[in-house]
Amino acid sequence: MLMQINHIVPIEHIITLSCILFCIGVMGVLLRRNAIIILMCIELMLNAVNILFATFSAYNGNPDGQIFVFFIMVVAAAEVAVGLALLVLIYRNTRSVDVSLLDRLKW
Amino acid sequence: MSVIIVILLTAILVLFLHIFEGRQWVNPLAILGLSLSFIILCLENNSLWGDYSSMIYMTQFAKVFTGTAIIFTILVFFINQSRLKLEEDTNNGDKLGLVLFSLCGAILLFTFTNITMLFLGIEILSIPLYVIASSSKHDLHSNEAGLKYFLMGSFATSIILFGMALIFGATNSLDIMTISEYFSQAEISKMAALGAFFVGIGFFFKVAAIPFHFWTPDVYEGTPSIWATYFATVVKIASFGAFFRLYILLGNVDNSPLYKVLVLIIILTVVVGTLTALVQENAKRMIAYSSIVNSGFLLMFFLNPSSDILSYFGLFILGYGLATIGIFSAIVYLESIGNSNGFEGFDGLGRSQPLFSLGVAICLLSLAGIPLTVGFLGKFYLLMSLSFDQWWMILLVIASSIISIVYYFRIFNGMYFSNKKASAIVAPEVVSPYLNFVVGFCALSLIIIGLFPDFYLNIFQ
Amino acid sequence: MNTPSSYLPIIIQLLVALGFVITTLVASHLIGPKRKGNKKDEAFECGIDGVGNARVPFSIKYFMTAILFVLFDVEVVFFYPYAVNFKEMGWHGFAAVSIFVGFFLIGFAYVYKRGALEWDK
């Protein structure tokens, strides 16, 4: 059934899109100092991977990739829950979510 | 796979027992459940667990590593028991439950035969640890350790996932054997190679190889010491177990870029890790760097994978884990009597607690690689596994081991040769019997297995 | 195949989405009556005047509920593959899904017993 999809968009374009999204996420994690934005960038990376898996799944006619996407979505939700809880914990103690303030432990 | 089920049920029981007014039974129940799962593991046949579409396979390698991880977790819970005698902890059940859940993830990492299981294993292992790291709620160090671990951990996971997606695209399969067959071809597509590269980078983050190590000292220092023990041992074993299996399966890459990256990272890890450990003033950070150096040694086993290497790899990681648990229990004791984490905290320990410090000293000697201990044997087999044209690698191991004696000796020196008056020693308080047990167990097994390694090495066959 | 026209569906979707947003925003701006003044911007019969930034304080209760909602909500995604293969999987599939739901109920019972859902505390 999956094989019959009419692929009007070439697969390279979708891979490129996903790579660009992933790179935006990586740069965001490395450059931004606000913990919430870093969290959003990690989500962006995960969603880029989701696009990639869904694309390969559809273009190769192998539904395994779509199941994998489900797992990534669920795990991402769990990660967000834990991450936001940690941020609230830190916000209560410092009144800030700027990671550069968190330098009690030296690099 | 009944091991995972037993541990999971134990975790749920622990969570609920904690709510229903059974707090003092939580820790013993967790230890009991783990012991039961260990017995079941010993009785279990190596079988494919068919009902999960053959996604999990208990090999002998996986079995030994699972057993090691379970024993280490039991030791960590014994250390935890010593703390419960001193202070009331209203969240103990949650913490034990989370540790047990993450142990399930660790076992998945040893047994996966499908990329999906690998991913789930990594996440089940990691997500509880982010909470555990910040479990000391009002301590900013702990909060910060949790946040750093969380950000770095999920970043690394995303990179691994991206690599997995590329491998899936190239091979059109999530099954590890199919992927392995694809990688054993002479010519593999660029996309698959890139995918393997990304997965490798993600795992370098997870096993804390330099230059991807910078979260490690912070996390070890900020996390409450008991749980830092878990991070330094079980989590390390789990990440290395998964990485090693993956490397063997995808490892027909002798001349691939990944091999060169691996060599570069090993050199960086051992050299920079050893030198940075020299200048640390805090025992926990020193151990963190020592664990980074040991990561470098463990990565050296990847260079010449063969069937014998598996057992030597297991021996090295066993020696490292036991010794680290012994030293961490000394740190937990010192914290419980109010000493700092600096090296001066160890001053005079040899006089006030002679037997306890003897055990800690044996653990230190094993980490430094002194003969008659497992640590020495591990390094010996590591050198044996390296081929003659990797002579510079051999030099690296020997040089790093000699330098490492210097920084392990600083603890040793404090314990036995410190001339300071007993100011650092608060009244000679009794060491909790649980801590004594843990240190005694670690020290004795280090020596016994160090003298008779065949017993352990034969389990792998 | 690789022609600009192959992106036509995506472009149409983009235009429809953008168009809807812009139209509703502009329309509500044009249609709605506008009377401005200091008195009108004040809070109407609500005690003290508003002071400070609205973004600083937030209730931890809403946060807990929201987080728990996200967790329980997303897990529903696993029912989609089951719903598609409902007939083929038979009792075996039903048992698997029942175990899955059972773990959920255990989780829910834990959350409930721990008091994460209590509003007045």
Give the N-to-C terminal Cα separation of chain A. 53 Å
Low-confidence segments of chain C, given as residue ranges, are none
CATH topology term of chain A:
Helix Hairpins
Give me the CATH architecture of chain A, please: Orthogonal Bundle
Structure description:
The complex is a heterotrimer of chains A (107), B (461) and C (121). Chain A has a single domain, classed as Helix Hairpins (Orthogonal Bundle). Chain A has helices at residues 11-31, 35-60, 64-94. Chain A is 73% helix and 0% strand. With 107 residues, chain A is mostly helical. Chain B has a domain at 260-461. Chain B is built from 19 helices and no strands. The longest helix of chain B has 32 residues, at 140-171. The model of chain B has no long low-confidence stretch (mean pLDDT 86). By secondary structure, chain C is mainly α. Chain C has one domain: Up-down Bundle (Methane Monooxygenase Hydroxylase, Chain G, domain 1), CATH 1.20.58.1610. Chain C starts with 7 loop residues before the first helix and ends in a 7-residue tail after the last helix. Chain C has helices spanning 8-31, 38-41, 60-74, 79-84, 86-114. The longest helix of chain C is centred in the C-terminal third of the chain and has 29 residues, at 86-114. Chains A and B meet through helix 1, helix 2 and helix 3 of A and helix 5, helix 6 and helix 9 of B.
Question: Care to give the gist of this entry?
Answer:
Chain A is mainly alpha-helical and 107 residues long. Chain A has one domain (12-99): Orthogonal Bundle (Helix Hairpins).
Keywords for this entry:
heterotrimer; A: 107 residues; mainly alpha; Helix Hairpins; 3 helices; 0% strand; elongated; C: 121 residues; Methane Monooxygenase Hydroxylase, Chain G, domain 1; 5 helices; 64% helix; flat
Layout of secondary structure:
The complex is a heterotrimer of chains A (107), B (461) and C (121).
Chain A (H helix, E strand, L loop, with lengths): L10 H21 L3 H26 L3 H31 L13
Helix pairs in contact in A: 1-2, 2-3
Chain B lengths: L1 H18 L3 H21 L16 H27 L5 H20 L3 H19 L6 H32 L4 H8 L6 H17 L8 H8 L2 H25 L7 H22 L4 H18 L6 H30 L12 H4 L1 H15 L5 H12 L5 H27 L15 H19 L1 H7 L2
Helix pairs in contact in B: 1-2, 1-4, 2-3, 2-4, 3-4, 3-10, 3-13, 3-18, 4-5, 4-10, 5-6, 5-10, 6-8, 6-9, 9-10, 9-12, 10-12, 10-13, 11-12, 11-17, 12-13, 12-17, 13-15, 13-16, 13-18, 13-19, 15-17, 15-18, 16-18, 18-19
Chain C lengths: L7 H24 L6 H4 L18 H15 L4 H6 L1 H29 L7
